[in-house]
Amino acid sequence: MAITDVPEFAHLTDADIECLAVELDAIRQDIEDSRGARDARYIRRTIAFQRALEVTGRLLLAGGSRRGYWWAGTATLGVAKIVENMEIGHNVMHGQWDWMNDPEIHSSTWEWDMSGSSKHWRFTHNFMHHKYTNILGMDDDVGYGVIRVTRDQKWKPFNLYGNLLFNTLLAIGFEWGVGLQHLELGKIFKGRDDRRATLKRLREFGAKAGHQVAKDYLAYPALTSLSPRATFKSTLTANVVANIFRNVWANAVIFCGHFPDGAEKFTKTDMVGESQGQWYLRQMLGSANFEGGPLLRFMSGNLCHQIEHHLYPDLPSNRLHEISLRVRQICDKYDLPYTTGSFLVQYGKTWRTIAKLSLPERFLSDTADDAPETRSERMFDELDASERRGLRSAIAAVRARRRAHRRSKAAVGTGGLAA
């Protein structure tokens, strides 16, 4: 099932993990020491670019309700929303730019263009998710409470249709899923919540969501309708489509970082007495990257470097690419896997896992300890000592044995048919 002993799974000694921490700490120190005008200029230019995009989109929608204007305005507005959420909002609220001491670009003051409150997100994401990454029962981002993404989550008949259905709905309305997450609806329905705290969170969510709905679906359509070439309905539908466009993209980027093969899951027992080096190791094993050029990096908020982001969530996003080169070298040195692939491959793997785990266990061929989406230290039980040099080598050895076993079974089957 999920990993219960990260050092054992990683084939590293305590001394190895301590050295790993020293090397990763050195990367952090280098980046912190070199932050400066170049980084400040980057985020300020990004904010100016995003605001220019949004104004352009709004003007295009006011320019006319014809198909050309509508699609141009909708696409531009959608891109503006993506940039605001991914490269600005998400990263500013992580404190990546707090060192600038700019009150307008600070984690404590930024309110992003989504239905959920920034205050709520900073708790569920910055604290719960990043501290307890992929720990079952601690990190609500493991399936978001409705999707089965690991064998450790008990199969229920609901999963048969709910896995794919709810993943689709979550993608379309991702901002609402993020906004509702902090309310802990499951505890509310079971009567296990603190009612006073719940009412406070509900008021805060209602105020933010109400503001967002009024802005996107009342104020801007009404303002645009003052133009003789546009209508209330044309801008209303454009805002709906732009938000869906942003939601689906954000969902895809986040899922590519957490649910492809190789993004491991962990048990609560593994966090007990966790050192800094063990925390680093869990972040490296529990995250996945996808590959892309400068444009894809920018549009994903640099979360194509999810491994590096989980190691250093508060370092500037524009530095993650250079950090990734050094982290990859460290993975090579300690024989650790560096989970990455193309965007389409990684996203396809998340959907494959979600579809696969909608089925009961009896229909799944791999064991719960060596399936691509759910591995544990027990997957190495049959390896010889000579095959346990390091995690990446050990995984390769298990795969080689598995391929040899399949070839052997196929040969036996062919021989039987021939006879």
What report would you give on this structure?
39% of the residues are buried. Helices cover 62% and strands 1% of the residues. By secondary structure, the protein is mostly helical. The chain is built from 16 helices and 2 strands.
Summary?
62% of the residues lie in helices and 1% in strands.
What are the defining features of this structure?
419 residues; mainly alpha; two-stranded antiparallel sheet; 16 helices; 62% helix; globular
Helix-strand blueprint:
Blueprint lengths: L5 H5 L3 H21 L2 H27 L3 H27 L24 H14 L27 H14 L1 H8 L3 H6 L4 H30 L7 H27 L17 H11 L7 H6 L6 H6 L8 H14 L9 H14 L13 E2 L2 E2 L15 H28 L1
Antiparallel strand pairs: 1-2
Helix pairs in contact: 2-11, 2-14, 3-4, 4-10, 9-10, 10-15
By secondary-structure content and strand pairing, the structural class works out as mainly alpha
Strand order of the largest sheet: 1-2
Q: What is the 3D form?
A: globular
Gyration radius (Cα, Å) is 23 Å
Portion of residues in beta strands equals: under 5%
Helix-strand topology string: HHHHHHHHHHHHHHHEEH
CA distance, first residue to last residue: 40 Å
Give helix % range. Answer: 55-70%
Number of helices: 16
The major β-sheet equals: 2 strands, antiparallel
Give the tally of β-strands.
Answer: 2
Low-pLDDT sequence parts: none
Mean pLDDT: 91
